[in-house]
Design a protein that fits this description.
The structure is a single chain. The model has no long low-confidence stretch (mean pLDDT 90). The chain is an alpha/beta fold and 195 residues long. Strands 3-2-1-4-5-6 form a six-stranded parallel beta sheet, with helices on both faces. The termini are close together. The chain contains eight helices and six strands; from the N terminus they run H-E-H-E-H-E-H-E-H-E-E-H-H-H.
Amino acid sequence: MNELSDNEHLSKLKVRYKNQFIVLMPGRFIDAKRHELAIELVKQLKNKIPHLHLIFIGNGLKKQSITNSIIQHGLDKHISILDYTTYISDFYKISDLVIQISISEASNNVIKEALFYDKPVLACKKVGDFEDYLHGELLLDKQDPLKQLEKKIVSLSKDQNYYKLQVAQSKTKMISLFDMQNVGKAYDKIHQKLK
């Protein structure tokens, strides 16, 4: 098998998703992650943001039913569903936004990784300990995040810098709470070993 170099993989992703507004949602395919809610979000936004593309990355018991739902709603041009990958960092790099709309969360790695790559991340309140560092403008109502998500995504699609200050403040606070530089280096080492 011919493995791509890191730069080749990232370059191919940039070409594949060129001129699209990329929303990334990594996580296991289980009910608690609320993929169906994200599918509903794309249904509501696809006409307002025609270049919107949601990327699900993960594995899990609900993967096939989520895939079926995407096809049933005719959203396969707006939503990709991918297995876990050793190139996850490349997907963060090409994304315009990361969403974490789970109703429960243990480690909050997705939020930390998004901020590490300077990406806006929208997440539900009262789900994990990330409220200690994630700026209030990036938090969503846990019970009904759909309207807030829609409004915030439309704003960000019109202005890529819309949440730049909040992301910078969140990242600074996160780094003060965690030694993220070492975490980033650890991810790089793991990534190199997997090749």
